[in-house]
Amino acid sequence: MAVTMYYGSVPVMQQLLAGLNGVLDKAEAHATAKKWDPAVVLNTRFYPDMFTLARQVRQVCEHAMAPARIAGIELPKNPDLDSTFAEMKARISRTADLLKSVQPAQMDGQEGKTITIPMGGQPREFKAQNYLYHVALPNFYFHTTTAYNILRHLGVELGKRDFMGPPPA
Amino acid sequence: MAVTMYYGSVPVMQQLLAGLNGVLDKAEAHATAKKWDPAVVLNTRFYPDMFTLARQVRQVCEHAMAPARIAGIELPKNPDLDSTFAEMKARISRTADLLKSVQPAQMDGQEGKTITIPMGGQPREFKAQNYLYHVALPNFYFHTTTAYNILRHLGVELGKRDFMGPPPA
After folding, report:
1. Can you tell me the distance from the alpha carbon of B68 to that of B103, in angstroms, rounded to the nearest whole number?
2. Do A8 and B46 touch (CB under 8 A)?
3. Taking residues B69-90, what's their average pLDDT?
């Protein structure tokens, strides 16, 4: 396994997306058992100016598109529909499919490619490698962790193993 | 900037450790202004079986030793003293110094080296590259994010920019 942008991002994103999918399964089962309105769970946030659980999951999927963006693959349109667990999980599934479609060779040699993304409403340019390591991955992890923390805080029985997802074979 | 284990870990860990240091500065100032006991803040957790804020910071520093561990540098003994903000910040400072001491060449070619770390009380072996991408980095980010989330939840005025720390020059 070479040290490349691909191997430093795609496999671990796949692992953690699978983890997040399992975390949402447990959250949904917990909500059903407690007769909680799923919308209340998906709209939970840690503070009034933080994102809801649903938006955390959306952000995870947004940042998980980075490898495909660097590879030059056309990105799917992900509508802002996330009012049910099923919609959240469908979004994760589409993102996992996108990651699966990225081939290592499509990212090789793209380290210096200019990537333009909107930040705070303004387009910002990054070299692909900086974008991956200093923008996409920290944000991907931030939102994956925050989604998990919100559910832990609500009492859903989860452990670090759920967060981490299945380790690579 | 080559794609190496070094460039995929050390600069972003330095960036986020500096972020965490600033986050703790703001937390301490907030606690002082509100006349909160710092120990209460440092012992806050999201759920009874989750780690306290202080332990989250300890874990961040533990996982940030990964590059030095791979480089074969002797690791500092970090005593489990973390009952004050000053002790937390001193730990972060020692960890930042350790990361600064790692030279890219010390990690090059070590991708397949066996790294043994205790997990759940048992020694577990990983190839260095898997250890870095699938153990150390996800855990580093997990605990950095959770420390930030605990403080956001307490009402400390922080934004994503504080979490992210100063971007690389």
Report:
1. 9
2. no
3. 89
Q: In sequence order, what are the residues at sequence separation of 6 or more whose Cβ sits closer than 8 angstroms to the Cβ of residue B149? A: A46, A145, A146, A149, B46
CB-based burial label for A90 (10 Å; 0-12, 13-18, 19+):
middle
C-alpha B112/C-alpha B128 separation (Å) is: 6
Q: For chain A, which ranges sit under pLDDT 70?
A: 168-169
User: Chains A and B: how many Cβ contacts under 8 Å?
Assistant: 87
Contacts 24+ apart (CB under 8 A), B8-11: B8/A3, B8/A8, B8/A133, B8/B132, B8/B133, B9/B66, B9/B67, B9/B132, B9/B136, B9/B137, B10/B67, B10/B99, B10/B102, B10/B104, B11/A133, B11/A134, B11/B168
As a whole number of angstroms, the distance between CA B91 and CA B19 comes to 14
Averaged confidence pLDDT in chain B: 94
Start-to-end Cα distance in chain A: 13
How far apart, in whole angstroms, are the C-alpha atoms of residue A127 and residue B1? Answer: 11
| Nearest beta carbon to residue B167 from set A12, A50, A134 | A134
Contacts of A11 in chain B (CB under 8 A): 133-134
Within 8 A of B142 by CB-CB distance, chain A residues are 141, 145, 160, 163
State the ipTM, two decimals. Answer: 0.96
Nearest to B142 by CA among A10, A30, A20: A20
**Among B128, B136, B69, which Cα is nearest to B99's?**
B69
pLDDT for res A163? 97
Nearest of A11, A3, A7 to residue A100 by alpha carbon: A11
Provide the residue count of chain B: 169
